[in-house]
Amino acid sequence: MDASTTASTYRTQQIMTASPEELTMMLYNGAIRFVNESIQSLEAGNLEKSNNANIRAQNIVREFMATLDMRYDIAKNLMALYDYIEYCLIQGNAHKDKSQLEQARSMLQELRDTWAEAMKQVRLAKVVGR
């Protein structure tokens, strides 16, 4: 087995055994990685690679939007944030505007960090027995 096959098998195994919370974290990290790739490719003048990475980030954001349970107020707030992130990604892609991409990345990082903290608090509560 070559290194790329091994890495692919490992990633597949990670995804298949991850909890929903861990999958959400993986998606946040993936979206951030794709935005970073889009920015780097834009800076390097590789517009096709920048576009492809941007589209992948948009797809993740749209998946977040599609899975929100709108019965809860927090979902409505998250929808507004995701909608704005998607807007920034689209504008950044269409106008080759690095600042829009950086805005999207910053918001995704904040959401990811908040998600990580929430996961930590839930684990702590389970340990304490709440």
Automatic annotation (TrEMBL):
Residue ranges annotated as coiled coil are: 94-121
Q: Name one Pfam family in it.
A: FliS
- Please tell me whether the keyword Cytoplasm is annotated for this protein: yes
Does the keyword field hold Chaperone? Answer: yes
Localization (cell): Cytoplasm, Cytosol
InterPro entries tied to this protein:
FliS, FliS_sf
Indicate the principal place this protein occupies in or around the cell: cytoplasm
User: Which UniProt keywords are present, listed alphabetically?
Assistant: Bacterial flagellum biogenesis, Cell projection, Chaperone, Cilium, Coiled coil, Cytoplasm, Flagellum
The UniProt entry's sequence similarity note says: Belongs to the FliS family.
Give the protein's recorded name: Flagellar secretion chaperone FliS
Organism of origin is Anaeroselena agilis
